[in-house]
């Protein structure tokens, strides 16, 4: 399993990922997560790297570059030099920019790099300008400058230009975006004309297509450094340009490691709505809908998800699936779920409420559970079970920085966040350890630290 | 593309791939590399002519003085060799065609 993960990351060289990020802090975080702990390099420079002082962290980066070159990790070393690049000192670009430009142009050409290449090259253009001294007096980092300078172009070029060109040819009638008719008319003769779901009839719903998976992965990796393996397992079934469709997944791990939030973030980053079905409050088989004969009949949860999101491939999250009621008197959630998890059955699913046949095969099911011991075997077999481990102390710098960023956004101050100092991190680590490495606890601890810092800060 | 050019490109590619694996130039390569004295780095535009248009690409160039023959003092000015990889300790540099050992740095060309 570990082998797979490393071969995946080879596809996307770290320097290219860094180029696509929007500031020094996220770039530093990703870098920090990717270099890992293997060589003990991080421990030597952690204090300087995260010191928040330009010179100190620059020296730390250079030291890291030396260490990484020495152990044969040239790409990461190059990334370290990128982090040391300073628009105020043009010389810092000489040791990184020519090789970076050459490698992007001639060496790195895997499919996943090619997706990010246009953006990377635009950003690289700004780096060249910085090397010329165009931003000599800028206090901001080159990552942020490059982001700001290319932002307008990024927004306008977001839609894929290729699909329009294709359309000029003989495929005039083909719709440009992939789509799916979830409720074909010929199989819906029994549909109640009063039903509010009749607007789905013969309607071609869009299928959301996965784009920029490299960036999705990079973003998730920085946000969940403890769950890198899980993220790779989730994302590896997706292909750039293909509709998002995941095999049923079951994320399991201790309470508070951020399972539900991870599912939401995956949905956000892929541009897909996540429909949440609460397992803890489900003590019947309403997931599958209630039969047509009942006066207030409800269709199954997947149909409701499609109806609400207006896409054919939403993500359906069954939260806390192990807490569902186990009495079989009114049916159980676990049994109601089963038919949806087989893609053949789901492609021709007859909804008991609407009494029509539906194609639900593109819905992705992700369940979360604190433990899977109670789940019946047939259900366990149908889900792919992915463990999300609790974070470790070594993940703290990244996680704390994420929390810090969230706090800053909450306070409406996105521009710059003063990083946590080493002694602050140390303090946080200690109280976090006491509270059992839960992300929820970490949020509270970091907030309290910042409050304490603000209260004791020297003002002038 | 000429055969010679093709060969240069292939060697360059192999070299950069090796540098990216963390291996610098081999000692024997370095020993036989010309020594570039009073060198400097400039930002230039490389002119690339294609069939239909002329492109200008951002590049860095390495300039400096190289002894015409090893051990002799008569030097020639080398300019406009396109820099591909500058060692961060400024001991060596790989340009598009050659590997140089680096001597003293001067920030004004000439």
Task: Detail the topology: elements first, then pairings.
The complex is a heterodimer of chains A (460) and B (110).
Chain A (H helix, E strand, L loop, with lengths): L1 H10 L2 H6 L4 H12 L5 H9 L4 H17 L3 H11 L6 H4 L2 H11 L3 H21 L10 H15 L4 H8 L10 E3 L22 E3 L6 H11 L4 H8 L13 E4 L6 H12 L3 E5 L22 H9 L5 E5 L13 H9 L1 H5 L1 E2 L6 E2 L5 E6 L7 H6 L1 E4 L8 H15 L11 H13 L4 H18 L4
Chain B lengths: L2 H18 L6 H6 L2 E15 L4 E14 L7 E12 L5 E4 L3 E4 L8
Parallel strand pairs in B: 1-5
Antiparallel strand pairs in B: 1-2, 2-3, 3-4, 4-5
List keywords for this structure.
heterodimer; A: 460 residues; alpha/beta; Rossmann fold; 3 domains; 5-stranded parallel sheet; 50% helix; disordered N terminus; B: 110 residues; alpha+beta; 5-stranded mixed beta barrel; 2 helices; 45% strand; globular
In summary, what is this structure?
Chain A is an alpha/beta fold and 460 residues long. Chain A is 50% helix and 7% strand. Chain B has one domain (3-102).
What can you tell me about this protein's structure?
With 460 residues, chain A is of the alpha/beta class. Chain A has three domains: 2-156, no CATH class; 180-387, P-loop containing nucleotide triphosphate hydrolases (Rossmann fold, 3-Layer(aba) Sandwich); 393-456. Helices cover 50% and strands 7% of the residues of chain A. Chain A has helices at 2-11, 14-19, 24-35, 41-49, 54-70, 74-84, 91-94, 97-107, 111-131, 142-156, 161-168, 213-223, 228-235, 259-270, 301-309, 333-341, 343-347, 377-382, 396-410, 422-434, 439-456, and strands spanning 179-181, 204-206, 249-252, 274-278, 315-319, 349-350, 357-358, 364-369, 384-387. In chain A, the strands form three sheets. Chain A has a five-stranded parallel sheet with strand order 4-5-8-3-9, sandwiched between helices. In chain A, helix 3 (24-35) packs antiparallel against helix 6 (74-84) and helix 9 (111-131) crosses helix 10 (142-156). The longest helix of chain A is centred in the first third of the chain and has 21 residues, at 111-131. Chain A is globular and about 75 Å long. Chain A starts with a helix and ends with a helix. Helix content of chain B is 22%, strand content 45%. Chain B has 110 residues and is an alpha+beta fold. Chain B starts with a helix and ends in an 8-residue tail after the last strand. Chain B is built from two helices and five strands. Chain B has a five-stranded mixed barrel. In chain B, strand 4 (92-95) and strand 5 (99-102) form a beta hairpin. Chain B has helices at residues 3-20, 27-32; strands at residues 35-49, 54-67, 75-86, 92-95, 99-102. The longest helix of chain B has 18 residues, at 3-20. Chain B has one domain (3-102). Chain A binds chain B through residues 62, 65-66, 68-75, 77-78, 81, 91, 94-95, 97-99, 101-103, 106-107, 125, 128, 131-132, and chain B through 13, 16-17, 19-24, 41, 43, 58-60, 83-88.
């Amino acid at each position: 399993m570990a082998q797979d993960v490393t071969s995946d990351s080879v596809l996307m060289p770290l320097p290219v990922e860094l180029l696509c990020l929007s500031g020094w802090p996220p770039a530093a975080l990703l870098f920090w997560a990717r270099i890992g702990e293997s060589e003990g390099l991080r421990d030597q420079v952690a204090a300087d790297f995260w010191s928040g002082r330009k010179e100190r962290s620059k020296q730390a980066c250079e030291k890291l570059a030396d260490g990484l070159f020495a152990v044969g990790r040239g790409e990461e070393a190059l990334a370290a030099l990128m982090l040391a690049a300073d628009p105020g000192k043009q010389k810092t670009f000489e040791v990184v920019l020519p090789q970076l430009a050459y490698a992007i142009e001639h060496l790195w050409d895997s499919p996943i790099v090619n997706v990010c290449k246009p953006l990377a090259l635009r950003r690289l253009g700004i780096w060249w300008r910085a090397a010329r001294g165009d931003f000599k007096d800028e206090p901001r980092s080159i990552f942020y400058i490059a982001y700001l300078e290319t932002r307008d172009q990024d927004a306008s070029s977001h839609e894929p230009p290729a699909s329009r060109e294709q359309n000029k040819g003989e495929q005039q009638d083909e719709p440009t975006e992939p789509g799916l008719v979830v409720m074909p008319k010929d199989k819906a003769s029994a549909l109640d004309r009063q039903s509010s779901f009749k607007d789905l009839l013969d309607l071609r719903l869009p299928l959301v297509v996965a784009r920029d998976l490299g960036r999705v992965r990079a973003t998730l990796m920085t946000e969940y450094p403890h769950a890198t393996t899980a993220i790779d397992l989730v994302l590896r079934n997706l292909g750039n340009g293909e509709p998002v469709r995941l095999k049923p997944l079951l994320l399991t791990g201790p309470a508070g490691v951020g399972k539900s939030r991870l599912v939401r973030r995956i949905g956000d980053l892929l541009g897909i709505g996540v429909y949440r079905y609460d397992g803890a409050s489900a003590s019947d088989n309403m997931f599958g809908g209630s039969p047509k004969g009942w006066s207030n009949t409800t269709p199954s949860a997947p149909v409701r998800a499609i109806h609400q999101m207006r896409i054919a491939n939403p993500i359906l999250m069954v939260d806390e699936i192990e807490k569902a009621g186990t009495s079989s008197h009114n049916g159980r959630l676990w049994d109601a779920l089963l038919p949806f998890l087989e893609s053949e059955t789901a492609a021709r699913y007859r909804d008991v409420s609407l009494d029509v046949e539906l194609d639900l095969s593109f819905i992705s099911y992700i369940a979360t559970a604190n433990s899977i011991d109670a789940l019946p075997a047939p259900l366990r077999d149908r889900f792919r079970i992915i463990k999300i481990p609790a974070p470790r102390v070594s993940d703290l710098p990244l996680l704390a920085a994420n929390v810090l960023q969230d706090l800053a956004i909450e306070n409406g101050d996105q521009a710059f966040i003063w990083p946590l100092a080493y002694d602050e991190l140390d303090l946080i680590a200690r109280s976090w350890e006491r509270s059992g490495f839960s992300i929820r606890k970490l949020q509270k601890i970091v907030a309290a630290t910042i409050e304490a810092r603000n209260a004791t800060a020297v003002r002038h | 593309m000429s055969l010679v050019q093709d060969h240069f490109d292939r060697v360059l590619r192999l070299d950069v791939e090796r540098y990216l694996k963390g291996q610098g130039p081999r000692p024997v390569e370095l020993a036989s590399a010309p020594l570039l004295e009073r060198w400097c780095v400039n930002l230039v535009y490389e002119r690339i002519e294609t069939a239909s248009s002329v492109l200008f690409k951002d590049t860095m160039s390495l300039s400096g003085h190289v002894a015409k023959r090893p051990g002799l003092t008569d030097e020639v000015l080398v300019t406009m060799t396109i820099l591909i990889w500058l060692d961060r300790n400024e001991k060596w540099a790989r340009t598009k065609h050659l590997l140089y050992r680096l001597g003293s740095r001067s920030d004004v060309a000439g």
